[in-house]
Amino acid sequence: MQTACHRSAGNDYEQQRSLSARIFCGLTILALPLVLFNVMETIPLLKGCVWGPFQSPRLGRTLWINPLPTAYKLCSLNCLYCRLGASDNVATDVTPYENDMPSAERILSSLEDTLLKGADFDTLAVSGNGEPTLHPEFGDIARGIRGLLADNDIKKTFALLSNSTTLVKEDIKNLVSEFDLPIFKLDAGREETFERVNRPDPHIKFEDIVTELKELGPGIHLQAVFVAGPSGNMNARDLEAWMKIIREIKPKAVEIYSTNREFPGMGIQMVPLVILEELAKKAEKYSKIPVVAYGNWR
Ligand code: SF4
Q1: pLDDT of 39 strictly over 50
Q2: In angstroms, what CA-CA distances link 109 with 49, 70, 234?
């Protein structure tokens, strides 16, 4: 016998299949000029520990804090679509890289100089050339920045952009409350998709990330990057799993993006904004959580 829940899940699945079919057609038509122009560039690495401000579609005028090396990307993931390009430095243990990272003291003193010069910004965001929470002094950095903002009576949004993989560490999870706007990545609703799209360090388990995100729930924002194609995360099964997970996590809001370049030979493609907007509407209806699509990452 089919229960109400099964019927609801079945209807949702059919609707998602239909969305997936429309996405495929839309992509074929809308992405063709982009493919023809073959936009391939990666973005440059941030060349300092305090960088900007730059305009961000979502965060406004943003001053970026980069606690990571400036010569290479250092991350616990190696996402297929990463705007910094692929990396050999995929790690959860960053001991071999520590000498290339700025100390908490240096970051705080650079930021203080920038603040004293009267930098004009809306948001101060900790992000950078990879995963910022990998920095061994991340606690000192987060608390130190919060203190600097308070001491200088600066009432700007303090944001974190993290890929969620370090939330299994209690000390990192406890720091989330230091931020006005903690944003965590979740591009997948299934382990298989996570492994394919985000290519994690082998110590990282998808189900651990989901467990931690569920604990944080309404205290965080989620962000997801979607890419089409055979290696992407836009097929009906992946979309259904992702929507179910965000409904279970219950974040305050979800922001979705695609990339702004093409990836010849990698089995992924950018997703036009019109398709993302359709997905956002669908996900919002399904999860009852605000979901907003942006045309450009960050
Ligand atoms: S988490 Fe961000 S920095 Fe790390 S590989 Fe993915 S996109 Fe790149």
Answers
A1: no
A2: 10, 17, 43
Q: Evaluate: CB of 62 within 6 angstroms of ligand 1.
A: no
Sheet of 221-225: strands edge to edge? Answer: 50-56, 60-65, 123-126, 157-162, 181-185, 221-225, 253-257, 291-293
Query: Of the residues 43, 84, 94, which should be mutated to test ligand 1's pocket, given the most ligand atoms within 8 Å of the CB?
Result: 84
134 lines ligand 1 (CB under 6 A): no
| pLDDT attached to residue 7 | 31
**pLDDT tens, residue by residue, 169-195:** 999 999 999 999 999 999 999 999 999
Decide: 84 in ligand 1 pocket, CB within 6 A.
yes
DSSP code at position 229:
S
Instruction: Tokens for 194, please give them.
Output: 């996570």
pLDDT score, position 41: 60
DSSP-assigned letter for residue 273: H
pLDDT beyond 60 at 248: yes
Length of the chain: 298
Average pLDDT over the chain, rounded to an integer: 88
- The residue whose CA is least distant from atom 7 of ligand 1 is 82
Work out which ligand 1 atom sits closest to the CA atom of 73: 3
pTM: 0.87
Is 15 exposed, middle or buried, given 0-12, 13-18 or 19+ CB atoms closer than 10 A?
A: middle
Alpha carbon of 14 to ligand 1 centroid (Å): 32
pLDDT-based confidence at 36, cuts 50/70/90? very low
Q: Name which residue leads in pLDDT, 6 or 166.
A: 166
Among residues 228, 237, 261, 279, the alpha carbon closest in space to that of 34 is found at: 261
Strands 123-126 and 157-162: parallel
Cβ(75) – ligand 1 distance below 6 Å: yes
Q: Which domains does the chain possess? A: 4-293 (3.20.20.70)
